[in-house]
Amino acid sequence: AEASLRQSQKMEAVGQLTGGIAHDFNNMLTGIIGSLDMMRRRMADNRLDGFERYLDTALKSAERAAALTHRLLAFARRQPLDPRPLEVPAILQAVAQLVSHALPENIALGLEVADGLPLALADANQLENAILNLAINARDAMPDGGELVIAAGRAEPGKCPAAMDHETCLRIFVRDTGSGMPPEVLDKVFEPFFTTKPQGQGTGLGLSMVYGFAEQSGGTIRIDSAPGEGTTVSLYLPGTFAVPPVEEGKAKVQPKGTG
Ligand code: ADP
């Protein structure tokens, strides 16, 4: 099955934001208020024994609330893209390095990069974040272990957006052998704040951010998934075979005789 997001669905999703945020945030505040309240009562009784535990709970809740607002702000801000020609193998290598530290021993990590790829035209930070998000989702879908592959190749015919030059269109994808998704989940995955993860573990912002990144880059995102068989999430991005411009840092080196 393949998922795509219609604009109307997206607007609907945005309409659900307020309730979702308020709910999560309220849970976090409840943790903070409850802990502070217990501390005040104990202080009145001159009992300081459980203090550290309550402080820990309050602190953890506050940190989670801060992380949520942080992500919300990043999402709302939609940091401007700075598309540049990028060496895909190097980017994937860097992300795989990061991901390897976040994997349990029962998940094998593979890297499959085709030869002769065009350079990707994308924002380096956001591309790395996007792949990282996909890899973390893949990890989370394999609680009993499995295989996670981060890969890049040329796009298959017909998969790139029509406006894109097929010759230079790249496919960067993350494949897992995890739980897969039933159609009713697949229908909703790009909605901001949609998550099936336990409370406090998922924000439901990952795929909506990756979706935004792909579209803003002039590309698209596709998901192939079947329950029990695993999931492949593919980013189709514009690329180029043109030689990248000299980096700013290198340009500062003056040729002999001019200085
Ligand atoms: P979050 O990871 O915080 O839940 P996402 O937007 O990244 O938010 O993902 C939304 C939901 O999509 C997840 O909760 C999960 O149900 C589903 N999902 C995403 N990636 C995968 C995957 N690789 N395998 C199975 N389910 C996935």
Automatic annotation (TrEMBL):
Name this protein carries in UniProt: histidine kinase
- What is the organism field in this record? Sphingomonas astaxanthinifaciens DSM 22298
Q: List keywords of the entry alphabetically.
A: Coiled coil, Phosphoprotein
**Stretches assigned to the Histidine kinase domain:** 20-241
Q: Which domain of life is it from?
A: Bacteria
